[in-house]
Amino acid sequence: MSRLTKISLLIFGIVVVIAIVMAVVVKTMVTPEKIRATVIPLTERSLHRKVALENIHIGLFSGISLQDLLVRQKEGSDNFIAVKSLDLHYRFLPLLTGKVVIDHIKLVQPQIIVIRHPDGTFNFDDLLGRKIAEGSEKTKNAEQAVPSRSTPKNVSSGTNMNLLVNSVSVSGGHLLFIDRSQSKQTPTRFSLDQVTFTANKITLDKSFPIELSAVLNGAKISISGAYDIKDKSGKVDFDLQPLDLVGFAPYYRQALPGKLGSGLISLNVKTDLSPDRIAAKGKVTLDKLDLMLNKLPKADLKQAKLEIDSSLSYQLNNKLLDFSSLLIKFNKIPIRTVGKINLSGKEPNLAMALFLDHLDLERINQGLPEGLAKDIRNYGLSGQVNALVELAGKPSSGARLLKKADLRFEDVQANLSGVKTAINGSVEFTGQEIKADKLLLNLADQPVQFSLDAKNLFGDHITGNFQLTADTLDFNKLMPVSKENEAVADKGENIANPQAVHEDTKGQGGNVNTSNPGQQTKSGRSEIGPISIPAEINGKITINQGTYKQLGFDHLFVDIQLKNNHLQITQAGCNLAGGKVSASTDMDLGEKGLAYQGKLDLSKLQLAVLDNGLFPDSGQRITGMMDSGNTFSGHGTQPPELLKALQVNGQTQIKDGEISGSPLLITLANFLGNIDLENLSFLSLQSRYVMRNGVVSLQGALDSSVIKLQPEGTIAVDGPLNLNLNARLSPVAMAKLGSDNNLKQALTDENGWGLLPLKLEGTLSGPRVALDSKALQKQAVGKAKQELRKQLLEKISPDKKDQKSDQNKQLLDSTLKSLFGN
Q1: How far is Cα 779 from Cα 237, in angstroms, rounded to an integer?
Q2: What does the alpha-carbon distance between residue 419 and residue 448 come to, in Å, rounded to a whole number?
Q3: Is 0.85 surpassed by the pTM of this model?
Q4: Structural domain boundaries of the chain?
């Protein structure tokens, strides 16, 4: 036998002997009875609950296995914790010294039932209370249960079994949470299934890795990382696949501003934990979000998506939340922010900055809730907005939270009532001041420049000024006819047809009560005001050339002032129709209906230009040079009520003019049988008028070679005319009058002019002309008296130079007066 063979047999024999010795030691020192005597009493004393252990298996290489370990509920016989098997793997070498060191624990199919009672307490509250009540001494003993490798310690003084846990693993775990606090009859249940947990190289003074995975209500949860028990620090990653939030509704229902129909939450977050700081970086997503809002029904969310991508930290000592980056996307609409929130006081204190980077308004339009979007989409928003907004202070500060804002508009477009509008430029807000320097507005493809500077925005009194300038501006492009106005125009219910308005008001209950402008108007819309604006703002509007309808004007200027809650046009004017227009107004914003007063002056306007520009297709024409001065006052913003409240005093004079196509002249020409009156040239047309309670009182005079009129009477804004024309026809016109010669002679004065007491009734669009019978009778009596006087004087005093002639005239006039009256 070779020497090598002998050595091999010797080593084999030694191994066999050691194995036999180890088996004997295991069987004699680590017995089921010793394990049972150690584990069950220790567990029952710690948990204050009954503990059952079905089987204990001990193997030389497999270690110790506890089968079917049960921990009962504190009250009753139901299970609190059930473990299919608990495997403890010991190390061999310590057995030679008479000690058992277990360095691996494996739990198979542990099941835990957590119950929340109707009063809000849990079925494990006594365990937490015991740990807290017993203080540091028991805590130290618990820590001694997992000693470090270098300094193993006994579990208790009565045993010689050290518990050095090198690794712990859990497989097939299950946790059932039963919550009876929300409803006694139908408790809420949550299930955490397929729980798997591993922790390796566990030690009290070094970081060790951990991994956990489970399925919560069908959603997979994964947790992995490393943790240091001594330093209470570690790095842990959390991953949650989409979890249905509806099942958790009882816990957030009261906090929501509405009702949640559906929603999935998922997250992927990496955390860095320390005793005084928690840092997190990752993403949280809410998807397929259906939320019906109580107070904003139009803003109901349907299948919305909210993404939060952040990097933040929370200082536990000073309660400071720090956002190094936070990106929020709602339906792909991004908002980025950085800053800090101090939570140490009764109210949070913010110091944050919000960033809008190339924010696409069209995308916002598409991402808004349908209830809001369907109203906003009509505006056709497009373009991009860039913004930096700085906030500092407490939320209760309201608008004062805003410390700085820089807004930059890049071809931002909108369709406002059919008018294509665009804006380019920057707006800056600093402290309490806002500035917009040469902001470029594009109104229906017409450039307009706007500048603004306002200060003390959050103070008691705002001050500022603005300027709006344009080289050319066509107002026709800014005032498209709306569908509503088109419908009204089709019915003829506009100011051009006052009779239609009059008939309409009859159908609604008659006259309008204008004594109380605070009442709701007949249109169903409440009057504006009172408004309080604690500000002093000065502004100027300048337009070099402009167009309204087909009428051009130039050098338009409007000086505006807001002061003491009065909005004033201190002066305004332009060159128009060869003349000038000037105006001023003062509007009191503090009254219901916004009371106002002002004046309007027109100087040397060419009516032909004015008429052709404003009413090119009316069929009526008027020419001449017009001067007019008017003062006005009133209140109200809703027609026809504002016309009822409008008060006007004015006078107008037109020289060397012509009128044609007027319904009034056509009616008068038909009545007198003289077609020449349909086109009337005149030397002058003068009028004085006063408007009160919707009625214009008029006195006027028209002087032409064909007819002279002295109208006097009233015109109501809702249609009715009541005018005495006091007409005088020229001898040529009288010759064309188809009447009896005796009647003509009765209506003719000594110069051959016919005196016709005509009365005008009806409406402006449908006038009616008639003879005033009473005036005609009085005029006939006067004519007869005058003729009789003439004949009697020729007989009584043929010599007009006779001294008795004057005495005879006086005696005759006295006699005729007693016969015919005045």
Answers
A1: 111
A2: 14
A3: no
A4: 31-200, 213-317, 321-411, 774-822
